[in-house]
Amino acid sequence: MKNYINIHCCKALMIFVMAALTVSCSSDDDAEVINDVVPGVASLVLPQDNTECEIGDIVANMAEVAFEWSEASGADTYDLVITNLATQEITQRPNLNTTAIIVRLERGNPYTWRVISKNDGEETTASEAYRFYVAGEPGSNNVPFPASLMAPASGSMVSPVDGKVTLEWDATSTDTDGDALTYTLFADTVDGNQEPPEEWKGLTETSLEIEVEPNSVYYWHVETTDGKNTAISNTFSFRTGVNTSSIQGKVVSTSQEILEAIAAAVPGENIYIRGGDYTFDATINIGTSGLAGSMISLLAHPEDETRPKFDFSSMTENSSNRGIELNADYWHIKGVDVFKAGDNGMQIKGNNNLIEFCTFSECSDTGLQLDNGAANNTILNCDSFFNADSTLENADGFAAKLNVGTGNKFIGCRAWQNLDDGWDGYLRNADNVTTTHENCWSIKNGYLKDGSVSGGDGNGFKTGGSDDKDLKHNAIYIRSIAVGNRFDGFDHNSNRGEVTLYNCSAYDNGTNYGFGSTNPLGSLIIKNSNVLGEVGSINAATLDVTNNSWDTEGVESSVEDYESIDYTELTGPRKEDGSLPDVSFFHLEADSDLIDAGVDVGLPFNGAAPDLGAFEY
Fold first, then answer.
1. Nearest-5° angle of CA 94, CA 96, CA 97?
2. Do 524 and 541 have their domain in common?
3. C-alpha distances in Å from residue 19, one per residue of 15, 26, 28, 29, 348
4. Between 325 and 303, the higher pLDDT residue
5. Which of 80, 105, 220, 461 counts the highest number of beta carbons within 10 A?
6. Contact yes or no for 193/182 (Cβ under 8 A)
7. What pLDDT, in 10s, does the model give residues 543-590?
8. Contact 224, 205 (CB under 8 A)
9. Is the pLDDT confidence value at 447 over 60?
10. Residue 83: phi, psi to the nearest 5?
11. Which is catalytic among the residues 349, 462, 472, 527?
12. What is the DSSP string of 300-345?
């Protein structure tokens, strides 16, 4: 027995030694190789993003959904992650060695899916997330995808600007049924579920600026509805810091401070004028220029409900007594009312200036005039009205005239009841210059503030003219309106230049078009325009006049074509941002034959072709 045990032990020892030798002699080539290459991103194929997916067999309320993605470089396996956006329940299929799989999901819900590529080590790379919808019973309404909250990021710190923060989310405008979606924003310091203000409900935009308190924690979410079903987003939180101001610059509140700030202005500086009346008895001279990309700005204070009014009524009537003389470049003047200057309300002699949302009224000459070579200036959303001299012979609303330069633009401007013309382009010592008028309205010029007839010309748009009747003022009019002017709506006045009218409207002028044959225009293009009443005179050395209300077969402009022909609404208050008011005047009725009767001239339009007139249906 003893010998048997010894022999057995010796054999066991020999086996152990041989095994050890075998292991120690194994080649390195037999060791396991670990993939340490970072895997690439899998490209998702099916279901496609923001779609209702195709489904296979249905058992109870569960449907088969096929998932497919492209092979990712360096990947050994994949994890499929599916999230039910209605319940936030997560379905996973880990460690897949294939790029396609079928998964059963509950019907009637929106989902997201993504794929995580993995190597044999610990490296992973996640794909983007796609959203899809698994349809419910036939005829049922699909639940919208919930909005994805974008900014502020959850847990972030935000510094309010003027006590406000903008919340942004990502969402489609329609659901997978094609139903239009609206959004309701919930944001508060309690839990993000308190009843929101009415103006936060039924939103169609995917951002909203809200008022907040400093140094507070806010919770917010967005609910998306198609009118039948509602999807609720995640809830984010953010903390507000100390309130900051959007006002970066000098704030002035007296006439003297305004003059001193203008005199000391440097490129890039902002001067903010508090609301109220400011009296001046001499011209405000602006002579220091800004720079391209670094303008000098003279602005109404954005926090004030009252606009700054520059009152020059103490001035005597004299050709040198202008209200503001801008003999400089790169200025931005916004939100100022210029009243009763002794000559021009503003005269611009510089270049590349922007005059925005200003008014010029009851001045003794033209409200705003560009001359002395002034070029490439933009007059945006400005009004000029009731301008008249004491002799009742002069004063236009706007003028790019005399020795004016080229490239000036009037956009969204209105001129009404000025003694002479709404716009005057008469030239002297300048030739072959171009001025553009876009969305401009000229109303009842040639009549005074009290409605009586003036002694002026009374044209809506006087395109040009000159002493020798040989100078060329090239005038472009786009979606502009001449209405109720005492003489011509659009007048050439012996201008020898090129005049273009696209989608313009004329009504109830002394003569709607006054393009005479004496000293005619060099070229006249009129397209997509409409006139109610007699057209007037259309002459030029070269004519290109087509697709208008008076020359298009099967088209006739009549009162029945328009929602309204009451042009008193054209002088109503502007919108808060300075843009023109919404009006019904000359808007086309649904059955008007002026709809789609135009020709493409490069302007945006709805339908098969442009409509005729200033307003697209």
1. 160
2. yes
3. 6, 11, 17, 19, 101
4. 325
5. 461
6. no
7. 999 999 999 999 999 999 999 999 999 999 999 999 999 999 999 999
8. no
9. yes
10. -120, 125
11. 462
12. E-TT-SSPEEEE-TTS-S-TT--SEEE-SSSEEEES-EEE--SS-S
The tens digit of pLDDT for each residue in 113-156 reads: 999 999 987 889 999 999 898 987 776 667 888 999 999 999 99
Q: Are residues 437 and 327 in the same domain?
A: no
Query: What are the contacts of 82-91 at 24+ separation with CB within 8 A?
Result: 82/111, 82/112, 82/113, 83/111, 83/112, 83/113, 84/109, 84/110, 84/111, 85/109, 85/110, 85/111, 85/112, 85/131, 85/145, 85/146, 85/231, 86/110, 86/143, 86/231
- Print the domain residue range for 283: 247-343
Quote the CA–CA distance of 304 and 557 in Å, as a whole number.
Answer: 45
**Token pair belonging to 144:** 């919208």
Question: Known catalytic residue: 462?
Answer: yes
Instruction: Identify whether residues 121 and 161 lie together within a single domain.
Output: no
Alpha carbon distance 548, 504 (integer Å): 10
Same domain, 398 and 469: yes
Decide if pLDDT at 176 tops 60: yes
- Domain at 581, CATH number: 2.160.20.10
pLDDT tens digit string along 221-232?
Answer: 999 999 988 989
pLDDT score recorded for residue 33: 58
Domain count, the chain: 4
Tell me, yes or no, whether 11 lies in a domain. Answer: no
| Integer Cα distance of 423 and 446 in angstroms | 12
- Domain contains 12: no
Bridge partners, residue 311, by sequence: 279, 339
Please tell me the distance from the alpha carbon of residue 252 to that of residue 271, in angstroms, as a whole number.
Answer: 7
Q: How many Cβ atoms sit within 10 Å of the Cβ of residue 401?
A: 24
Cα dihedral 284, 285, 290, 294, rounded to 10, equals 0
Average pLDDT estimate for 494-518: 98
Residue 63's pLDDT band (boundaries 50, 70, 90)? confident
Between CA 330 and CA 552 the distance in angstroms is 45
Mean pLDDT of 86-96: 90
C-alpha separations of 149 from 198, 204, 238, 506 in Å? 21, 15, 12, 49
Report the C-alpha gap between 471 and 195 in whole angstroms.
67
pLDDT of residue 380: 99
Q: In Å, what is the CA distance from 4 to each residue of 11, 16, 81, 86? A: 11, 18, 63, 75
Q: Looking at the predicted structure, is the pLDDT value of residue 5 above 60?
A: no
Over the stretch 16-27, which tens digit does the pLDDT of each residue have? 333 433 334 344
Q: What is the SS3 assignment for 238?
A: strand
